[in-house]
Structures
1.
Amino acid sequence: MIRYLKFGGFNIDNDADRNAIQQLIEGKITQVEGETTPAPYELSETECELVEAQMRRGAELHRQGARDEAVAEWKAALRRDPGNLTIRKQIWMAQYPERFHPVIDFEWQKGQLERERAEEIATGVCGPDGCPLPRVANR
């Protein structure tokens, strides 16, 4: 059950964000009330299932030592769900492990995301207003 949606700008160091999560964990509230930000796009149920399958396949390939094949699978998932930061981070961890171990380099991640988004706009993957292009599910 989804109880809290916040697209972009979530920061565990932000008191409001941290308090909302803590109250959910402690059972003090059942959902976060207040201003919500609409999702930048919505995937159909089938698209969600495909993304999840590609993520699992990529994880299994990576576990088997087939890094390049895993990255290819995750990139296919990212094309379906370009706003999914989890997918991007899986790719980055496989391609740039030194940025994640022994310490996660958050500044590098921020810069990498900016570089990738700029490239996506330049190549037409995303629109001039940013990534991802809005899509509406046919449900």
2.
Amino acid sequence: MNQVKNDQIRQNVRSRYKEIALQELESGSCCSPASSCCGSADDVSSQLGYSTEELTAVPDGANLGLGCGNPQTIAELKPGEVVLDLGSGGGFDCFLASRQVGETGHVIGVDMTPEMVSRARNNALKGGFTNTNFRLGEIEHLPVADQTVDVIISNCVINLSPDKQQVFHEAFRVLRPGGRLAVSDVVMTAELPAEIKNDLDVLYSGCISGASSVDELKTMLTQSGFQDVVVEPKEESRAFIKDWVPGAKVEDFIASAVIKAIRR
């Protein structure tokens, strides 16, 4: 993709998530920015693998119901670790991570939408989370120092980047040796039809047309220096993905996946 198209994609994504950040969501959340509303944010997140205990442990307004899995279940976070969330939104996964790393740990959330960063910071104050820090920035250019992070998590965000290789380069840069990547994201399991692939507005910001294949992700992670790369599509995820664009059968082409890798 050329730079102009990349910038247009970022603007589209930023604009859509600004809208989401500013809405109160009192009447329910959307499974994906491309979909019609289909239940509350908690209803959506329970389908993604979050427990009732997790859903009640965060401030109101932190869970926007926008993920495609639960990175907490694969991250195996430990007390004292430094965690970085790529595309932290309202802070939902950061606050859950905060509880696991404890007072001796620290959680950094990076998001490119100012309204999301503001929302997350307000949620942190509301919930009394003192070991979280939310920063404005692009995941292709992380505002994080070299080799300062133990674990990187992300929930259905990397697919939104028009330069995924650069995202993985940055992830590798900020991780300490021995650090790990634990991501939930969508992957392409069959070639997308042209009308879906070329929709760089609604369907790209809806976590669909920006999906990469399993082999593409493995190659990019390896090229960035990662080892022990695992990309596992979850067939059961198609049950909720079908609601993202009702009638379009996008579940025939994408699935949620567990993505893991280590910086040795």
3.
Amino acid sequence: MDGEQVLDARAAGLLPFTPLMKRPIGVDAEEWLRRCVRVADSIEVSDKAEYLACLAVLGNLVYEPQTVLSIISEETMQESTLIQYIAEKATAEAHQQGIQQGIQQGGKTRVLEDILEVIAFGLGANAAQRFKPALYAIDDLQRLKGLLRAALSAENPEDFQQALDSSNSET
């Protein structure tokens, strides 16, 4: 669709889509985006920040986010409830992911401590120190849980070494 016609018509409902439209011959992409923003900014709408944020979101489909933010001020973007919602959602998701990683890491640490305690109790402190570096290099919680069971049943360090080697070959 010819974007220049939409800009000339100043069709408020279509202007946020103009960065996606065909630009005039001889006009580079960044200049086209600047024109689209300039015309959109000149239109009378009830919430200019939302209007420009919609143009920015659509523009991000074909332009680098830095380019869009260099043309539409970050302050204008932050006024938009759409952008605020997206930012809050992203922050909440990052927070939740951090909590999950913390839980998993905490579970790993506890299982590692349990394995070393079982080895130290059943096979001796030297055996626990011997296996410690190899155990701390393991990130898979399920694999560590299997090694905890192996530590409980190991009668000597060689038995546990065999279980450790076996778990290495399974990955």
